Automatic annotation (TrEMBL):
A single MF term (Gene Ontology): metalloendopeptidase activity
Ranges where the Peptidase M48 domain occurs: 69-253
Sorted UniProt keywords: Hydrolase, Iron, Iron-sulfur, Metal-binding, Metalloprotease, Protease, Signal, TPR repeat, Zinc
Entries under InterPro entries matching the protein: Mito/Outer_Membr_Metalloprot (IPR051156), Peptidase_M48 (IPR001915), TAT_signal (IPR006311), TAT_signal_bac_arc (IPR019546), TPR-like_helical_dom_sf (IPR011990), TPR_rpt (IPR019734)
Record carries keyword Heme: no
Domain of life of the source: Bacteria
Extent of the TPR repeats: 285-318
Protein name: Peptidase M48 Ste24p Zn-dependent protease with chaperone function
Co-factor: note: Binds 1 zinc ion per subunit.
Homology family: Belongs to the peptidase M48 family.
Phylogenetic lineage: Bacteria, Pseudomonadati, Thermodesulfobacteriota, Desulfovibrionia, Desulfovibrionales
Length: 437
């Protein structure tokens, strides 16, 4: 997703510029060795603070199931004390997305989707998942990845200066904006070595906390099973967490050797089942959403709609179900229905940003520019720092005939560093109005 890559690089670069001097070589807290780190721990926290809220919103926000959220946070916090970086500002969250995934930002913001929470079968497996994600934070994988990326970006920046307007590609339809910040787009992609290390650290942390190492075996086995059953369903997870069978076998081996003496530790299945009981009542609806999303990703919108309808029959007020249906309607050109479902999503989870974005796009497509502008303004207030919002504000102002204000937003968008089709359109508008010679 190139547009999001640009956005991510922009945000990271911005965070680093704002935080001042580069950090240079640092001691890796896990290995104790010197390593090229262009981000200081303060910058890791800053990058986390700027990016995590956008990913949480793309994943439909944190759960309203406060008991579940509290449970997951307390399991994570208890383990965090046993890590190599116990003082990081960890927070552990359940986000509403239905696909199977979990991830960590470099300052310690960690999230698991409802999809993966329904897959896990005991607290030791949850501990393994949280331990793995904390492993990435502790070994500073994002920091070292971003450091390498920034070095490369520094080289690429010299080339970018020569880029002219003619290199911009053709326009894409407005609907493309629906997926502008997609799942996983803001997250680091780890190497196989990073994944192995995160598994190793995860197992260490979970056993130290008192969970059976079988939790890690169980987690890895779920991923193998799901991959065998529906390979396409797990593309996002496996692009950031690959090589499931090798990892499962390693977990088995470690459980039998290094951690053999910990085999009597508990799995805490009952405690996990009690705390996820409410979530599990939604499983049939979430299954339908997952199936619908698979059709959406294949652009089979009519098939997707059938499953979203079933999901909404089972869980009529589900924010994700409503928003998925809204996007599905808009993708099929049903603007009025798309808008209606986006408005229902806004009611079901007031203040959550993504529904405002989708409602704004629906109104924009219907030519209701001032109503659209109001949605985008509210979005920016709820979740500042998304360049796409600036672009759509510009479009709404453009539609309203407010040329000066539209021009200001179009140039803000170009300054955000995006080089996508929207940037081309923004540039063309500015040129045709004489703002760019
Ligand atoms: Zn990982």
């Amino acid at each position: 997703m190139p547009a999001s890559m640009n956005r991510r690089q922009f945000l990271y670069t911005g965070a680093i510029a704002a935080a001042g001097a580069l950090a240079g070589c640092a001691i890796n807290p896990v290995t104790g060795q010197q390593q090229l780190m262009l981000m200081s721990p303060q910058q890791e926290v800053e990058v986390d603070r700027q990016n995590a809220p956008h990913q949480f919103s793309a994943d439909y926000g944190k759960t309203d199931d406060i008991a579940l959220q509290t449970y997951v946070n307390s399991v994570g916090k208890d383990m965090a004390k046993r890590t190599h970086r116990p003082d990081m500002p960890y927070n552990f969250n359940v986000v509403n997305a239905t696909y199977v995934n979990a991830y960590a930002f470099p300052g310690g913001s960690i999230a698991a989707t409802r999809g993966i929470m329904l897959t896990l079968q005991n607290e030791a497996e949850l501990g393994a998942l949280m331990g793995h994600e904390m492993g990435h934070v502790n070994a500073r994988h994002t920091s070292s990845r971003m450091s390498k990326a920034l070095v490369l970006q520094g080289l690429a920046a010299g080339l970018a200066i020569g880029v002219s307007a003619s290199e911009y590609k053709s326009l894409t339809p407005l609907a493309a904006g629906l997926g502008a910040i997609g799942a996983g787009a803001l997250l680091a992609h780890y190497s196989r070595e990073d994944e192995r290390q995160a598994d190793e650290l995860g197992m260490e942390y979970m056993v130290k906390t008192g969970y059976s190492p079988q939790g890690m075996v169980g987690l890895q086995q779920h991923l193998v099973d799901m991959h065998d059953r529906t390979p396409s369903a797990l593309e996002v997870l496996f692009s950031s967490h690959p090589m499931s069978e090798e990892r499962r076998d390693t977990a088995k081996y470690e459980a039998q050797t290094t951690y053999a003496s910990a085999s009597g530790l508990p799995l805490k299945r009952e405690r996990y089942m009690d705390n996820t009981a409410k979530l599990r009542t939604l499983k049939p609806a979430i299954d339908e959403m997952q199936t619908g999303e698979k059709f959406m990703s294949k652009k089979q919108y009519a098939d997707a709609e059938v499953h979203f309808r079933k999901a909404l029959k089972l869980a009529p007020d589900d924010y994700v179900g409503l928003l998925l249906m809204s996007k599905c309607q808009l993708a099929q050109g049903n603007k009025r229905e798309g808008e209606r479902y986006a408005e229902l999503a806004k009611i079901s989870k007031p203040g959550e940003a993504q529904a405002l974005h989708v409602a704004g796009l629906a109104k924009l497509q219907m030519g209701r520019y001032d109503a659209a502008l109001s949605q985008f303004t509210q979005y920016e207030r709820a979740l500042p720092g998304n360049p796409n919002t600036i672009y759509y504000e510009a479009m709404a102002l453009d539609g309203m005939g407010q040329r000066d204000q539209a021009a200001r937003q179009y140039s803000r968008y170009l300054r955000s560093g995006n080089r996508d089709a929207n940037a081309q359109r923004a540039y063309n508008r500015l040129q045709s109005w004489g703002y760019v010679k």
